[in-house]
Amino acid sequence: MAITWSYSSIKNFQQCPKKYYHLSIAKDVKQSSTTALVYGNEVHKAAENFISKNEPIPQKFAYIQDVLDALNRIPGEKHCELRLGLAKQEEEYTPCGFFAPNVWWRGIVDLLIVQEDVAFMVDYKTGKNAKYADTKQLDLLATAIFVHFPEVNRINSALLFVVSNEFVKRTHYRDDSESYIAPFEYDVTRIEEAIQNGVWNAVASPLCGWCPVKTCINYKERR
What we know:
Layout lengths: L6 H9 L1 H9 L9 H19 L11 H8 L4 E13 L2 E5 L8 E11 L2 E8 L10 H13 L5 E8 L4 E8 L3 H21 L26
Parallel strand pairs: 4-5
Antiparallel strand pairs: 1-2, 1-3, 3-4, 5-6
Helix pairs in contact: 1-2, 5-6
């Protein structure tokens, strides 16, 4: 069985294969919406509408106005909430649609600005601060950008923590693009093996109380 994966689905598998199975394979459980998730979606939509449609920022998100103004002033071709897909044949990655029949990987770039052979990529984060920032998601998105935009050779990337106004920056180069996606291949292979073997072991952790798989032996109601 061929799989289609994303950064978030790989994180689910790393956290607990059983959780991944129910969310991505059996699809008999859905990730419940949370206040933080709804808030994050609203911030993303406000940023998208401001940059792509010049719509005013809602007053409750006024604190992101200055940083979005600065991003909007960067010259170049702007893409908001850009959905990208990669197909894979042997060791070659090729561009494809987000919902293409042969899509192997999916990702969404919050903001991409292309200036000839240089691009700027921003991923908005609504966490309180950048203490636990993880730039691996940027690595995957950069790989896809290099595949979809063959003219781009360098990407100035950043996680933008909008609440604390922190930028966690990375610079990505086309010549290094294979190394950005390689670390994820191990877990993709593990998922393929789990599909073949039908073994999805549950992993106990402090996060079990937040897991939507309530039938799991490790699930406990939060108090």
